[in-house]
Amino acid sequence: MNRHFRDARYHARRTVEELYAGVEMELEPVRERVEARVEEYRGVEEPEPEPTRTDRVRSVGRNARDRLGGMPISR
User: Fold this and answer.
1) What are the φ/ψ torsions at residue 73 (nearest 5 degrees)?
2) What digits encode the pLDDT tens for the residues 13-44?
3) Rounded distance, CA 10 to CA 68, Å?
4) Is residue 64 within 8 Å of 73, Cβ to Cβ?
5) pLDDT at 75
6) Counting Cβ atoms within 10 Å, is residue 20 exposed (0-12), middle (13-18) or buried (19+)?
7) Which end of the chain is more exposed for a tag (fewer CB within 10 A), N or C?
8) How many degrees, rounded to 5, is the angle at CA 17 between CA 16 and CA 21?
């Protein structure tokens, strides 16, 4: 009986190895395309992030203070 289990385990392992090799072979072109795209975008710089609402309000406050000649703006 042990021999049957040992044989079944061997065949299951071989099946998984063959399945892995087959999937790897089928997905090779996809992997190559993805790697090529990643290489294309490595040299592209990230765009500046949009300013947050807080940053925009602070900018408006600075601009208003500058137009007033440096007078402090009361809160």
Assistant:
1) -95, 125
2) 999 999 999 999 999 999 999 999 888 888 77
3) 84
4) yes
5) 55
6) exposed
7) C
8) 115
Q: DSSP class of residue 70?
A: S
Tokens of 12: 């299951």
Tell me the two tokens of residue 23.
């999937």
- What's the start-to-end Cα distance of the chain, in Å? 87
Give the length of the chain: 75
DSSP state of 64: H
Question: What DSSP string runs through 31-52?
Answer: HHHHHHHHHHHHTSPPPPPPPP
Tokens of 30: 């996809």
Q: What is the enclosing helix (H) or strand (E) of 21?
A: helix 2-42
